[in-house]
Amino acid sequence: MLLFVFAVILSVAKDPDPFDSRMLQEAFYRMSLKPALLLLVLSSVLDQPLHAQLQKRTTPPEPTTPAARRFTDPRYHVALQIPAAWTLTRRDGEVSTFHLDARSAPATSQLRAVATIAFNPFPQSNFTGALVYFSVSPRTTDAACAAQSFLPLHRPATTTEISGITFAHGSDEHGGICIESRDDVYTAFRNKACYRFDLILNTFCSGEVSGVREMTHAEREDIRTREQSILNSLTLAP
Q1: Contact criterion met (CB below 8 Å) for 196 and 234
Q2: pLDDT, tens digit (0-9, with 9 covering 90-100), for 4-24
Q3: Hey, how many other C-beta atoms are within 10 angstroms of the C-beta on 185?
Q4: Contact in structure between 84 and 67 (CB atoms under 8 Å)
Q5: Going by fewer Cβ within 10 Å, which terminus of the chain is more open, N or C?
């Protein structure tokens, strides 16, 4: 295939008969295709889609600060691995407002920590932020804890196991004229308290409103994978 493309490029490079206007037009047309053919050759040599090659060349390396570290909550015996380039705070309101993002959390919920991505991996999209909240609702019941995952999206809550612990899992979306926040909620009842984790993906309205494109499905999944890796690092002492 590669030899064939080179042969085509060499053939269009030959001088046409100057007395044949038809041949001149055809030669000019073929010559105009040479840059595109050269790009196809490069793409076939690298064995990657051309758009992927361009994206790879223009994507800067991701930051490494703040450094990765281990979060621990000695009161509730929770530990999470926070990756590099994510900030960590234990106070509500410093980087976000917990109850605006976690709409189904009761007023008695206590924010214990929130990890926030410190850079934008998709600057050409309408992505604005990713957060992983850990909160606790003390003195509650198993049923009330599970009910926190029954969210307004009307999607049936499911159960999933993380680090040997069964969690109720639900999803929520909300916004004004578009979807501006997506929330994956995980709750587990332990020691008469509800342990809750919210995986938040925030965006703003794209298209004609802002002139910025919508995040692709693959980009949203990339953010979800980053957030899920934090939750999957969970350890809970008895």
Answers
A1: no
A2: 434 434 444 444 444 344 443
A3: 25
A4: yes
A5: C
